[in-house]
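Handoff note, outgoing to incoming analyst
You'll be picking up this chain. Sequence as last confirmed:
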Amino acid sequence: MVDAPGTPTRARPGVVTISSWLLILFAVIQVLNLILTLSTIGTVRDVLRDAYRGTAAEQAGDLAYAFGIGLGVLTLLLAVGMVVLALLNNRGRNGARITTWVLGGILICCTGGSLVNNAAGGLTSGGNTGDMPSGEEIQRRLNDALPSWYGPLTTLLGVLGLLALLAALILLALPKANEFFRKPQPAWEPPLPGTPYPGQPYPGQPYPGGQPTPGQPYPGYPPAPGQAAGEWSPPPPDQPRPDRPDVDQPGRREDGTQEPGARPPSAS
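Most recent structure output, in case you need it:
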């Protein structure tokens, strides 16, 4: 949506600029998470294959691998979308701000739920279920196979991304941001020299209603003595106008009705 011509330029407040940078930071964090996921997804698949070999969930490793690839593609799309929304917010697009709130709220719920789930999974352990390995055994094998920095780094990135996104959404709701995203009213501009006001003809064109242009005689009247052709002079008094004979009669109004107290013309 493009602003109408004559719309005054709006100064972008600092809260909107900071919010856009926070959205871009969140997108960068998602890209870093994607790199970490793709670099370790093969190891996770091998660990799950070994853990569930010979059980009913032997395909758990392949399913986890496919899920990780799909999640990585979705993460990349979300990162690109956040950058686009940040750029549109900088231009004052209110639709982009609303979309940022909706999408950001969903991502906050997903990110926060993932952090809580990871923390709860690290603090609890489950027992064996038939021939299936326990959750504690799976977590132990993953910790042994993955680098020691992987878990703390992913948790730190998740917390930073959550805080950046939450702060960006709050900044977009501040009063200064509301004024920036409010649709501006077009500013009044005076007409250019030579441009007539609304309701007036261009120079040289007749006035509406058959009125002559200033400086021109009424239709049907010859120029007055001593007046050159093209010069304007008022119509002779007490003479009816050829185009409106009923108007110039004594006691008649412009609409043709009789004035109160006026005598009608006598028929001679």
